[in-house]
Amino acid sequence: MTNPEDKPQTDTIDAREQRLKSLVSSRPRRVSAFIRRYSDTFGSVNTDPRSDAKRVLVIGSGSPSRIEMELCLVKALELAGWRSMPLIYHWEPKAILPYYSLLSSKTVYNLSDYLEPAAFRETAKTLVHNARSLQELLKFEVGAVRIGGHAVSSALRQLGSISLDLQDETSRNLLVDLFAASMASAAAIEQLVGLLRPSLVLTEDTAYTPRGEILDMCVHLGIPVVRWYVAHKDGALMLKRYTSANRNHDINSLSDASWRLAREINWSADRREKLKQELSIGYLRKDWYNEDGTQFNKRQLDIGAVHNRLGLDPLRKTAIIFPHIAYDASFGRGEDLFASYDAWLIETVQSACANDELQWVVKVHPANAGKFLDGHRQVPDEEDMLRMRFSRLPKHVSILPARTDISTLSLFPVMDYCVTVRGTVGLEAACRGIPVLTGGTGRYEGRGFTIDSTTPRQYLERIARIQEISRLSPAQVELAQRFAYGLFVLRPLPLSSIALVYDKGSNVENHFNPVKIKLQHRKDWEEALDLRAFVDWATKSDDEDFLLRSDAGLDR
Description:
single chain, alpha/beta, Rossmann fold, 3 domains, seven-stranded mixed β-sheet, six-stranded parallel β-sheet, 20 helices, about 40% helix, globular
């Protein structure tokens, strides 16, 4: 199997391992420096909440950059009269614990103090060893908590693997540990929620154990979970409120109310142009989804150069397959047609091999290069899996590696069809009139501009005749653009008082430089428009999505 982009890797294993070690060892120094720099500004808004103050349970993160960002959101809630209750659980609490001295709260809770995984180990062992398939394990639930999904997803992430073999002793032992941990987490969260009685939960993610169990348990008990995450561009956050009705929605989606609003706004030339700029400027600045470093070191090429680099015939149609990272948040983001991301990819590529009416490119997710590849794995598992499954791909099918220097923006002019499960690229393609075949739900399917299948057979039949599908109609393109406008323009909260700064020369996860806070005095905190907007949405509304109301005609 050959790639049109094969080239020597410039990142050595020793260099990458050295950077990872440096990242971990530098954390205590970073925490101390942050506290020294910002203790006065945080201290200026210390509060003594009333005894009957509403309480926010803050699920801490192991990443300094995320904690620094989250501290600002929590301090804004404290200023509004809320009592914060930080909850930590990760593997290095001693390194990050000092961060919480900046909050008014005097108590930091540690989930480990409430966990009793040994009490669930025998149950977990029986469950795993008697399971006839991974699907059987995935369906296992305890009350409202999806134990199987969280445990299997966490196992895939820890192994960095696209699949689990129940016949493999290492996989079985890990699954036993994680099923026991998941059940223990569910029990501990139920106990903690009863003890602390929060009115709101704040977290930057809802995947993996114990965050997944926290989401399931809290929304079941009627406690909304507010998730925040960095947006697709610098200086903005995405915010979503989760309840039992939408716990399976991706943060990068529109609620029914948001979609209704996006459909009803005046679709003016100014808004179309604003969206057009939004869909391109991030690539040109190389900060499109900086969180994953997807466009660091990428180059914009013209259509001729892309054809030449990929060996594509400009006279033939081209379909591009966009795999997801198979073990990254592989559960709880929607419903999949196939059992797993890797099963979807194998079936899709197998159908592509059988359809030589057009040329196919498998575009491996660029986040692999900066987020998940480590010193022991220089090639993404998706590529390895395809190499093992297809010893030799036919000439009309090729692979574009994760480390290609070709910007994704350069691919749209050569793309006639887009194939993905639920990737953001599908929405971008539809905005350009390119037909999109989806293999799952949770993001933008069912809105009138994608080709969604209800069964694997229907999906594969469409792949087999994909060349017969026409480009999107103007009405479909407008629907896609309206959805994208809602997601990329109206959904993000622009940050004016806080700056997230990226190290674009880094090729490892968590490539944030320290968060910069522009606030100095209490008055600055009180007048910070971004933090006030967050607090108003989080505490005074029931809206699923934060939506920017300053866009002309949307104020209310």
